[in-house]
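does this look right to u?? nicotinamide-adenine-dinucleotide version
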Amino acid sequence: MERSVKTLMDLSGRRALITGGAGHLGQVMAAALMECGAEVLIADLTTERAWEAAERLMAEQGGRARWVGGDLEQPEGTDDMVRFVEREWGRLDILVNNAAFVGTSSLTGWNVPFDEQSYESWCRAVQVNLNSVFQVTRRMKPFLMRSEAASVINILSIYGICGPDLRLYEGLAMNNPAAYGAGKAGLLQFTRYCASCFAPAIRVNAITPGGIFRNQDPRFVERYADRTPMRRMAKEEDFKGAIVYLASDLSAYVTGQNLVVDGGWTVW
Ligand SMILES: NC(=O)c1ccc[n+]([C@@H]2O[C@H](COP(=O)([O-])OP(=O)(O)OC[C@H]3O[C@@H](n4cnc5c(N)ncnc54)[C@H](O)[C@@H]3O)[C@@H](O)[C@H]2O)c1
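got this back:
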């Protein structure tokens, strides 16, 4: 007999690692997985940052959250998460590659027009947004292989599938660095590569979020909404359904796909 939708989305007993889990989207996705019964491991830049997020999640959401620190720009950045999964869990059911170098506007050579973008900021972004995903996935694969329902979810961006509309940034202290989109585009191909190589044991999919409202300059928000069929920027809860769908047995026959959650940004 077929299982009910409620049963298919039940993540009780599943263990999920979320990189960048202390960030805005990371915490919302962790909360959604915990609501469905998963235990989560929040991995982020420092142990303290990950611990604070895990404590907040347990207080607000209930359920169990663990934490681990590690800078994914560094070669040893994945060591502690591997040690944790090996020692505490022995297997992994869900891996969300969500951490990203988003930079800050004060970083030299980053949030500026193309001619001013630096090779150094390019390398740092590609290191976190692409190279480290290879490293995390490669090192977690043995633990994912021990799961009965393994699912990897890579978090991309609309700028990995289309070029930036520079009219959005005209006259504003905002920009769209080339390295960000290039890294995300590479991650889409890596998603397909892994889906092919890891099947049927491990499913590998992607979520492509559109721009999320974070109190940006009102002129930017208005231009963005004008250019989006759904007439607004995304909000964090827009991604809860996508993460639960791809993490759970609701999507047991789905692999190698990119679920675009962008309010229609990419349809025109
Ligand atoms: N915010 C948006 O509009 C938007 C749009 C499309 C896609 N995305 C993607 O969604 C994901 C989450 O973004 P967010 O908006 O929540 O950003 P965020 O900055 O709130 O979270 C990113 C997290 O990654 C962590 N991180 C950054 N560098 C790291 C490193 N070197 N080592 C370990 N952890 C590191 C940060 O500490 C942070 O907690 C990213 O992959 C981002 O590219 C965001």
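The mean pLDDT is 97. idk if thats expected tbh
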